[in-house]
């Protein structure tokens, strides 16, 4: 999965650069289409794959503001008054 994300990132980076080069020197509409496809691919392919890869194996409850987590944060701030 990690290698696939890296390859997709490099391909999209090449597409962005190639799109800007084509837009600047050759054909304006073709360059815009290449850049647009690269933006869509990075939004709908690369970003979800990256988020899934980074969050795999983590508990979502640790990152949510629940009553228990708020109580834990309040207990931590009350124990160490030196940082204030």
Which terms summarize this structure?
single chain; 84 residues; mainly alpha; 3 helices
In the residues, how many domains can be counted?
Answer: 1
Task: Indicate the percent of residues in helices.
Answer: over 70%
- What structural class do the secondary elements suggest? mainly alpha
Question: How large is the count of helical segments?
Answer: 3
Rough outline: elongated
Q: Percent of residues in beta strands?
A: under 5%
The strand count comes to: 0
The rounded distance between the terminal residues' Cα atoms is 43 Å
Evaluate the radius of gyration. Answer: 22 Å
Q: Could you give the order of the helices and strands? A: HHH
Q: Unreliable segments (pLDDT under 50, ≥5 consecutive)?
A: none
Average pLDDT level = 88
Largest sheet: none
Describe it for me?
The chain has one domain. Helices cover 77% and strands 0% of the residues. The protein has 3 helices and no strands. Helix 1 (2-25) packs antiparallel against helix 2 (28-55). The longest helix has 28 residues, at 28-55. It is elongated.
Lay out the secondary structure:
Elements (H helix, E strand, L loop, with lengths): L1 H24 L2 H28 L11 H13 L5
Helix pairs in contact: 1-2
What can be said about this structure in brief?
By secondary structure, the protein is mostly helical.
